[in-house]
Amino acid sequence: MHLFDFENSYATLPAALHSQQHAQPVADPQLFALNDELVRSLGGDPDDFRTEFGVSCLAGNAVPKGATPLAQAYGGHQFGQWNPGLGDGRALLIGEIVTANGRFDMQLKGSGRTSYSRAGDGRAWIGPVIREYLISEAMAALGVPTTRALAAVTTGENILREGPVPGAILTRIASSHIRVGTFQLQAFRGDTDALRALYDHTVARHFPNASNIFEVTAQMIDRQCDLVARWMSLGFIHGVMNTDNMTVSGETIDYGPCTFMDTYHPSTVLSSIDRQGRYAYGNQPSIAAWNIAQFASSLVPLADDQDAAVETLNAMMGTFQDKWQAAWARHFCPKFGLSPTKDATGIARRFLTIMAETGADFTQTFADIDAPLTHKDYADWRSDWQNLAPDMSIAAQSNPIVIPRLHHIEAVIQSAVANDRKPFDAMLAAVTKPFENHDLYSRAPAPEERVTATFCGT
């Protein structure tokens, strides 16, 4: 049966970059969710994925024609510490879907052990699968570059975490799964041939207009500034911005201990594994710059004059702050109905200070930006804002009413564990139409509903 037009150009790259293998079969795969719209946009028929063969492919029990399953090798700086022993420990790149709009990776997450699993079982349970499905689709609806959820299947098997939990597999779509850590690993190994092959492959796929490592780095800076500014304009905290969780395509990837803030504060950290606050909301731009610097460093071995390349790349990293400020203004000022000018940027930053000092809910406050706040500086701020003649239609288009809040996600997961999928369907319908009022999903959590920590869930 034809599902998609598959190839896998990544499988032709040197063996140092991947390990070809099949998924571990599961006992009783059942379709939990299918993204019909995404299937169609990639040239497929949703009905084909609802057949026994289609579900088997989504579970890894069967391989579609043209696909070449493989696990990708990469390293990464995890909380600042270099680790060369990473890679796809619970995921397989099934193949590349060839469409009129380019190639898109199809990956299974939770498909069993790979060469890079270390002590892990390579599986996923329904909780993190649901979380990634809901949040990645919400991000897509909000216009944020992101990996997408194509499908989720349950496996008919329990896996052990703190106790037995139902197993599941997520099918993820991405422009590619090439990470900063993919480049770092080959540079660390000193395998210039593999590094060059990876670079050529990546440039052809993601940087077709770049003619050298400096132009690639410049585009990386632009993409990451824009991406992180988009995150922050929505109150989003990735939670684990390790270099192995940063794509060179500029898409958001790996929705582990991530969150959309409820109460705004720049030092907010909800990730249970971020004990030092390295990836706090307000630290995200500086971490992005640090990660790009690691990427740039990994390209140096490809330069004819490496000393000159280091000097040029260091100078290029000096442009990050100005580009970041421009990206921040480009995404924050419209939330106030303003164009990104110096005065508008000042207005935006003053308002965030007021929000932090009043404990305002990030999403609700912006969704009703014209509502007053009780703060000693608010009246002066409002007068200055009004003097800039804000266009409230622009503000309405920039401020979502609904985000995937953690307490709702947790409730959906608990219902799914109890074999009730209705809350998942209801929440998915709400978060994929974020500028519409959805009653329950439009409200901030009550104090007793707030989730104070998020977990990786792997």
TrEMBL record:
Cofactor: Mg(2+); Mn(2+)
Protein keywords: ATP-binding, Magnesium, Manganese, Metal-binding, Nucleotide-binding, Nucleotidyltransferase, Transferase
Positions of ATP binding: 87, 89-90, 109, 121-122, 172, 179, 254
Catalytic reactions of this protein: L-tyrosyl-[protein] + UTP = O-(5'-uridylyl)-L-tyrosyl-[protein] + diphosphate; L-threonyl-[protein] + ATP = 3-O-(5'-adenylyl)-L-threonyl-[protein] + diphosphate; L-seryl-[protein] + UTP = O-(5'-uridylyl)-L-seryl-[protein] + diphosphate; L-seryl-[protein] + ATP = 3-O-(5'-adenylyl)-L-seryl-[protein] + diphosphate
Residues annotated as catalytic: 244 (proton acceptor)
InterPro entries: SelO
UniProt keyword Nucleotide-binding present: yes
Residue sites binding Mg(2+) per the record: 245, 254
EC number: 2.7.7.-, 2.7.7.108
Domain of life of the native organism: Bacteria
GO molecular function: AMPylase activity; ATP binding; magnesium ion binding; manganese ion binding
Pfam annotation, one family: SelO
Keyword Chaperone: no
Function summary: Nucleotidyltransferase involved in the post-translational modification of proteins. It can catalyze the addition of adenosine monophosphate (AMP) or uridine monophosphate (UMP) to a protein, resulting in modifications known as AMPylation and UMPylation.
Assigned protein family: Belongs to the SELO family.
NCBIfam families found in the cross-reference section: PRK00029.1
UniProt-recorded name of the protein: Protein nucleotidyltransferase YdiU
Organism: Marivivens niveibacter
Phylogenetic classification of the source organism: Bacteria, Pseudomonadati, Pseudomonadota, Alphaproteobacteria, Rhodobacterales
Gene (UniProt): ydiU
